[in-house]
Known about the structure:
Elements lengths: L11 H10 L11 H14 L11 H12 L8 H17 L4 H21 L7 E2 L8 E2 L2
Antiparallel strand pairs: 1-2
Helix pairs in contact: 1-2
Amino acid sequence: MSLGRPIDKLSLEELKVLLAWHQVPAEKGKTKKADKLLQWVRVVEEGRQPPPYNKWTDDDKARLQALMDEVVTIADTRYGRDLALKKREMLAVADKFTAEERSEFRRRLDECEVVEALASLPSAGETHDRSIVGESIELV
C-alpha cells in the first residue's frame, strides 16, 4: 500500500470501505475478513483505480443545506404513506361490513379511546374522578 501499511493489517471495516469505493460487487456469502482481503488483493494486483469524483462545490453545500432545513414529517416517509393508504383502504371497506362486523369495529374504537384517555391522565399515584368507565381511577 502507498501509505506503508501492510494490506493484511487492514480491518474488515476498512476493507469494506475500500471495496465499496472501488465499486467491487459484494460476493454472496463472502463476509469474512479473509474473503474481503482476497478481493482487495485482486484490486491492487489489477491496479484498478477508484472511480473519479467531483469536488464538493458551494452549490452542493447550498443544496445540502436546503435539504437539512426542510421539515420532514411522518407523512413524508414510507411508513407515513403506507399508514395513510391503510386508512383509506379501511374506510373503503367499512361500508361492506355486516352489522356484526360494525359492532365489533365500534367496540374496538371505543377501546382505543379508553386507552388514549387513560394515557392523558396525570402521573402515577394520583386519584382522579374521571368517568371514563364510570368510576374513580387510581393510577399506579
